[in-house]
Design brief:
The protein is an alpha+beta fold and 290 residues long. It has three domains: 3-48, no CATH class; 61-142; 145-276, no CATH class. It is 24% helix and 27% strand. The chain has helices at 21-24, 27-48, 120-138, 144-148, 154-157, 201-211, 269-274; strands at 3-10, 13-20, 76-83, 86-97, 100-107, 177-178, 183-185, 193-197, 229-232, 235-242, 248-253, 258-264. Strands 6, 7, 8, 9, 10, 11 and 12 form a seven-stranded mixed sheet that branches. The longest helix is centred in the first third of the chain and has 22 residues, at 27-48.
Amino acid sequence: MFGWLARVYGGGKTFSKYFSDKRYGSKDASREKAVDYLKQLTREVREKFADYNPRQNQPLFRKKPGSTNKTGVVGIHRCETITRGKATLYWAATWNEEGKPKDKKFYFRKDDYDTRLRSEEEAKKMAIEWRARKLLEISATQMPAIQKLKRRHLKELSTVSNDRLLKTWVAGLVIRDWSSSLGFTTSVEEREIKKLEKFHEKRVTDLIDFLGVSAALFTWEDIDYDFGRGLFKGDVRSRCFWNRQGIRTDVLVLEDGVINIIQSLEPDPYYLEQQPAEKPRRRRRRRSIV
């Protein structure tokens, strides 16, 4: 096969057409047809995609961990470097600001005997908070749950205080802190749902307020309050809830009043199974008058 290929790129797509020498009689004739088509197609594509921005439909930052993410939290990673034979350990928070990569390191001690530096758990939590704060600064419009909070609370969200207690999540239970192991999972079938209980918006609002800027790591909009809140078998303290797309959020109460939050990346089969099936429409019988 011999011929000419006219190709134009636009709007994130490729437009092309092949002009065969055999069809148009000669090499020069097919080339002339291809050039004419190329000019016409280029003009049409430029007019059609004049306002196209290759990144216009992409978010400013990633909210779900990639396939190579081992921490379960986007933009957070653990590092160990060797300088002059001495190991240096830290958790780093990374983000993009005006198209440039940024990072912030939080060093921690190698063992519990060294009290000059913070612990690894504290360093990881500080990295999570730092990145969440930066995301809040970059685009508050992409965090509907944070916007729902009153304006006077925004300054409080910039600093998380461990002195703040959460008493409204489970009756009779006081939550004092949140775990730095916040993350995401593709499967939520490990914990079996025992039953559902009533749920209301204030519980989520208080939970977001308690998490502070770290709440920006999760999706909180379109929560299905009518469906209710789930109780796990063998765990009377922990709870879970869903949004209307079936995404489940587990709030697991650990020892000493600490909570760990895990949000699914895919719809929960339990939620989908519990949805009522649509009732078939009754066919109206037509009466004929003779």
